[in-house]
Amino acid sequence: MAARVTIEELERGDRYELVRRLSYEEIPDFVMEHLFRKNKETRFFWLSVLLFLVLAIRPTIDFFASAPGFWNFLLYAFLGLVLFPLLLAPLHEIIHAFFFLLAGGRHLRAGIDLKNFFIYVTAHRHPVGRKAFRRIALAPFFVLNTALLAAAWLTPGYLSWSLYLTLFSHATMCAGDFAMLSFYASFGDREVITYDDVEEKCAYFYVEKE
Fold first, then answer.
1. Number of separate domains in the chain
2. In a domain, 25, yes or no
3. I need a labelling partner for 4 at 20 to 30 A (CA). Which of 52, 57, 143, 205 fits?
4. Angle 8-194-43 (CA atoms, 0-180°, nearest 5)?
5. What pLDDT was estimated at residue 12?
6. Where in the sequence is the domain holding 130, given as residue range(s)?
7. Taking the model in full, what pTM does it have?
């Protein structure tokens, strides 16, 4: 299995070639570079963001039609766009971590980069193949957005509007995951193996030679 390739085998270069060494400092630019490329990964991301935005239109109309007042507007907007997304961020990373464990990763590391406004969890120096990485990347998007959609639909009152805002907000929080998949898409069907060296604060990407 490709996911069982060791770092030593990758570095030998017999079957795989190093195509990118990504410093954590470069991640914001990397996301912007790959999130706007035209492929099925980015199309799915932007259509999902648009869908969640559209889903929030009717609850928004109903919210303002009830004349909530200025302070209620501030409160429930704060809940939906700030507080709930912040509370979801650790859960988002825990789901990533769970799927890293399923992929055989054991030395899990987590961190936060306040300068570049992102948090991360990864398996230190554990190579992961393309299929496993795809599951790791997409799991929080599907698990949390499904739960948020159900909660927003079932919750009555003003809080429902907050949850629809959170649904939209969390979709945008997944931009980095989809940017990474967009990068993978640039190599067609070739196997891509990645691992993080947390001490170096770098991710390495190797692609199967043609």
1. 1
2. no
3. 143
4. 160
5. 92
6. 30-191
7. 0.91
